[in-house]
Amino acid sequence: MFQKILIANRGEIACRVIKTARKMGISTVAIYSDADRHALHVAMADEAVHIGPPPANQSYIVIDKVMEAIRATGAEAVHPGYGFLSENPKFAEALEAEGVAFVGPPVKAIEAMGDKITSKKIAQEAGVSTVPGYMGLIEDAEEAVKISGEIGYPVMIKASAGGGGKGMRIAWNDDEAREGFQSSKNEAASSFGDDRIFIEKFVTQPRHIEIQVLCDAHGNGIYLGERECSIQRRNQKVVEEAPSPFLDEATRRAMGEQAVALAKAVGYASAGTVEFIVDGDRNFYFLEMNTRLQVEHPVTELITGVDLVEQMIRVANGEPLGITQDDVTLTGWAIENRLYAEDPYRGFLPSIGRLTRYRPPEEIAAGPLLENGKWQGEAPAGAEAVRNDTGVFEGGEISMYYDPMIAKLCTWAPTREAAIEAMRVALDGFEVEGIGHNLPFLSAVMDHEIFIKGEMTTAFIAEQYPDGFEGVELPEAELRRIAAATAAMHRVAEIRRTRISGRMDNHERVVGTEWVVSLQGAEFALSINADREGASVSFADGSALRVEGAWTPGDTLARMSVDGAPLVLKVDKISGGFRIRNRGADVKVHVRNPRQAELARLMPERVAPDTSKLLLCPMPGLVVKTFVEEGEEVQEGQPLCTIEAMKMENILRAEKKGVVSKINAGPGDSLAVDEVIMEFE
User: Cβ of 543: how many Cβ atoms within 10 Å?
Assistant: First the structure.
């Protein structure tokens, strides 16, 4: 077995590989850019080598710099993770020439399947059903428009070397095809160093389901079930689960066998993923093969008990697979939510900055069900697991140079319903402060009727949140639970305040039992009868709730129980109450005595400032291009400028007709959130 492995990556996947290598007794080498000098993966590795400036095209994807680090440390093998150099055949060739093992497939397999255009042609020649499209190279935007018209709108414009949703655009007409081609080309060049573009038919209402394959260099190959990846935003996966709630056993077997056959046809040896789109009748079509470890691999590991990173390392070491297809059992259900540094209240635009608070939920291992890396039998009722794969820490910084993913939160349970509930509780207990993040949105998805029924398609987010995410309106039953809990918490805080020393004589503070709780436009008059174990909260309509739990004033997380059901609240103190975040809702809760509540009803509401004549920067980023000039009249929907953040280009458009009176920022300017880019008459 290898003695030392270099991880040619960063962030959570580098940390993930280090964990398995450590378990196997293999020492690890991390590489890092200037921006990652204090990153978690650097601290976790046994050695670390600096490789250059923050931009990936000057550090992480520069093959010569990675090779220098390998030589300097004497690493015998390299795990590329995902992204960066993971599907670059030139990197695999460089390692082979150096006599260093590549923890991934052979060069020919990468060339055959790693390039989306080539893989489509091979699949077609092998008789695999593929989506109609144009696999040749496209010279310019006008040719892209012509090809798109011949295929028929809508079309998907994709980077040949793409991945992670970058370099991808959906076009519904000629203008969008022209615009999307250029943006995809730019993103592909900056992210992958390869600006080749191809176009295919965009299949509406599809499901995105992928098969995990594992092959060795001795001709053995197996599949480890499927992953449902249909909930995507901007072609980037957000929620994944295994198995899929849509597939039946016959379809699963057919997809798995086809995936393994395709892998064997190109001499594949390592972990890989064959992606399909599946229609409503369970017809499936080959989409692409990712010749690397997928971001969402943990859900497969949770339902099979197989450590995919360990298997990749063993295959790279020349070992045959120790698992046959008959050994693979799918036990229980696993769900993964990707926590991104992006603000759902601002159209999911990237967010950067320092993590002033980062407290993930406690991880729970599913150990008792595992033996030698495999699941043993049926899972007992009530069992569950929580796993958080991350590459950040409290006090660390989210950089503008890399992918915005902070963590991958996974839950496992014997049933899908139990796994979803475990995820809800885990999300409620995940504390992140200092940056915009998508935790509220993830919580909302877990409670969405379509997701609960398992009826989602890749259009789920676009269809269910057409105007963006604006938070969650909690049902009255949940508001009552929160009202009861916060009233009990407020009483605890009030009692503490009565014990403050140095009070004036004859000014004793009395804590009453009658309170009025207002939240999310609702108001509840209630009374509290407290005892040593908790409090009984009675509402004016005669209903009552029992509240128990440990919360101390100043705690940012309250783990309560209301009538025996868990209630986890993120808590911040505000004047006269709390800011509460729960199940995707962000609610201001005011707890007042009856007289205070009476006076509060007379207070005028605060009006937000008018920004209708300003174009504000929606996220920290760099101005790439401005499309208008001062004095120019613009129409609704007209492009105004392009902002680049986290390797993604975002075109800002006019919300209404107007005249540009002043331009405050131009190409090359770095802007903060809400900085004024343009002003209008």
Answer: 12
Identify which of 666, 614, 611 has the alpha carbon closest to the alpha carbon of residue 643.
666
Q: Is 517 helix (H, G, I), strand (E, B) or coil?
A: strand
Active-site residues, by number, are 288
Contact between 258 and 128 (Cβ < 8 Å)? yes
Average pLDDT, the chain: 91
Interatomic CA distance for residues 412 and 384, integer angstroms: 5
Q: How far apart are CA 537 and CA 391, in angstroms?
A: 43
Residue range 185-211: average pLDDT? 86
Q: Where are the beta strands (DSSP E) in 374-489?
A: 374-375, 385-390, 397-398, 405-413, 431-433
Task: Give buried/exposed letters for 278-304 (b at 16+ CB in 10 A, else e).
Answer: beeebebbbbbbbbbbbbbbbbbbbbb
- How far, in Å, CA of 608 to CA of 613, rounded? 14
Q: How many CA atoms lie within 13 A of 637 on its CB side?
A: 2
Report which DSSP code applies to 369. Answer: G
- Give the percent of the chain with pLDDT over 90: 72
Q: Give yes or no for a cis peptide into 243 (omega within 30° of 0).
A: yes
Closest CA to 184 of 368, 615, 192, 333: 192
4-7 and 397-398 beta bridge pairing: unpaired
Give the contacts of 200 (CB within 8 A, at least 6 positions apart).
120, 131, 132, 133, 134, 151, 155, 156, 158
| DSSP assigned state of 111 | I
SS3 20: helix
Ramachandran region, residue 73 (left: φ > 0; alpha: ψ -120 to 50; beta: rest): alpha
Distance (Å, whole) CA 450 – CA 444: 11
With cut-offs at 50, 70 and 90, classify the pLDDT of residue 228. very high
pLDDT bucket at 394, cuts 50 / 70 / 90: very high
CA 620, distance to chain mean position in Å, is 19
Distance CA 429, CA 635 (A): 45
pLDDT tens per residue, range 256-305: 999 999 999 999 999 999 999 998 889 898 988 999 999 999 999 999 99
Q: Strand 27-33 and strand 4-7: pairing? A: parallel
pTM: 0.83
In angstroms, the CA 213 to CA 257 distance is 10
**Percentage of the chain with pLDDT > 70?**
96
Q: Six-digit token pair at 413?
A: 């349970």
Angle at 413 between CA 407 and CA 416, to 5 degrees: 95
pLDDT greater than 90 at residue 379: no
Q: Average pLDDT of 648-656?
A: 88
Alpha helix (H) ranges present in 454-556?
460-464, 476-498
Distance of alpha carbon 142 from alpha carbon 177, whole angstroms: 9
Whether 600 shows a pLDDT value over 60: the answer reads: yes
Question: How far from 148 is each of 199, 234, 280, 314, CA to CA, in Å?
Answer: 7, 19, 25, 44
242 contacts 303 by C-beta, under 8 angstroms: yes
pLDDT surpassing 60 at residue 527: yes
Q: By mean pLDDT, which of 118-127, 250-259, 273-282, 453-462 is the weakest?
A: 118-127
Q: What is the mean pLDDT of the segment spanning 232-258?
A: 94
What the block records as the tokens of 595 is: 């007289």
Task: Pick the closest to residue 658 from 677, 639, 635 (CA basis).
Answer: 635
